[in-house]
Amino acid sequence: MELHQLRYLVAVAEEGGFTRAAAREHVAQPGISAQIARLERELGQVLFDRSARGVRLTPAGEAVLPHARAALAAVTGVRDTADELAGLVRGRVAVGMVRGGGVVDLPGLLGAFHREHPGVAIRLVEDATDALLDGLRRHDLDLAWVGRHGEPPADLAVDVVLDVPLVAAFPSGDAPAEVTIAELAEHTLIALPVGAGVRAALDRAAADAGVALRPALEAGSPPLLADLAAQGLGVAVVPAPALTGRDDVRAVPIVPEARASIDLARRRDTPLSPAARALLARARAGIT
């Protein structure tokens, strides 16, 4: 049994097929198939059900998979420990950012981290909060900035990066002193797409108020929402900091108050690599 066989086993299980696993591992698909077949012969068990509907783990494969992941993690731990003893921070760190999380200066953070640790390869993905949480649990991501509108998941550790009120961005010449969720429903609404943390907080506030909100325009970042509102295309719901320094829109409080949080999340069940710990430390230094 060899480590690359275990790595291929995990890749096929997580990707749901040999072709996607081969692309992920940068090897030819027949090579992965041959190595998995060899592993099955060595174990005396069929690990995958190869049917016309796709590739699925057999019960034996389900039982073996956690041990394969643990073995690969242990090897990574050995390398990380050796690097720490040598005073090196290198390797890889995979991070995720929730869609619409532009109020966090992630480019600045990653740029400063890269300058400090040029030997670390950084992978960044942007996705909905639920997908990022799944990525953490599958060990695809080390850290993720995720939206939250309730209690944080029990299996994840979090640092609160941002906890701010939502406001309605009206064109500066025509804005009330405050606005309710029900009143927002009477306007052409501009909002982040479903899956963004701010959108989840808005939808939760609407559900609590018994109001159905149907945004007419959706865009992927709070500044862009404010730009659309400034052009008179509707009323945008954004985190309050997104309007700081703008005079082309007016920030109108929403009553009762609706709040949105962005957390920096990580797994509880496994320690972070030295690279991920270094990035976490730098991110924490920027949290006020």
UniProtKB/TrEMBL annotation:
PROSITE patterns cross-referenced by the UniProt entry: HTH_LYSR
Superkingdom as given in the UniProt entry: Bacteria
Keywords, comma-separated and alphabetical: DNA-binding, Transcription, Transcription regulation
Limits of the HTH lysR-type domain: 1-58
Alphabetized InterPro entries for the sequence: HTH-type_LysR_regulators (IPR050950), LysR_HTH_N (IPR000847), LysR_subst-bd (IPR005119), WH-like_DNA-bd_sf (IPR036388), WH_DNA-bd_sf (IPR036390)
Stored Pfam families: HTH_1, LysR_substrate
Keyword Transcription: yes
UniProt family annotation: Belongs to the LysR transcriptional regulatory family.
Protein name: LysR family transcriptional regulator
